[in-house]
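Take a look at the protein record below and tell me what you see:
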Amino acid sequence: MQTYIVFVLSALLLTACATNHPAGVNTPVDAAEYYQPNQSFTPTQRLYPDPTGGLGHSEDPDVRVTDVRLTASYTILYMTFMKDPNDRAFYNSTSSISFNSKAMLGTHGSKRTYALLKAEGIPLSPDSRDVQGNEPIRFTLFFERLEDGVERFDLFECQSDNQNSCFNVSNITVENSVAKAK
């Protein structure tokens, strides 16, 4: 009986120390995403993430852009790398992935480019990460913020060759009109 009482008290003590707040899944990326008094809120229609088909057209079928966000400081690409489970040649194999630190975003109709600032969830070259079979790797890329009015752009990582497949994606779109940006 004494052991039972100690067990119940221990369980109560542990649950009292545990937090009931959800994990910071939607933690703001920069200060502009926090509430700011005296700032009007206008709801905007947003393109929803597409984790299955991806946004834009990827040069590598294993790479998808699942979401794009603009903050005051960044253009953020949420991406997924996963081998096709129907491709038996790669299902039980190991791949090495990394991302080129010289990658950039390029705009349509302009020579303006936006540099990669940081990456989360994927190492930058020359470091790499091994991926087993069809293990999904989700990663986030932070680029310089697109100028107001730029709504279509391409991700250029590197030139693909016989040994390397680059994570190049064309025709990515995001809502970024001049009127909404101000």
About this structure: Helices lie at 2-17, 88-91, 178-181. The radius of gyration is 21 Å. The first strand starts at residue 57 and ends at 58. The mean pLDDT is 77.
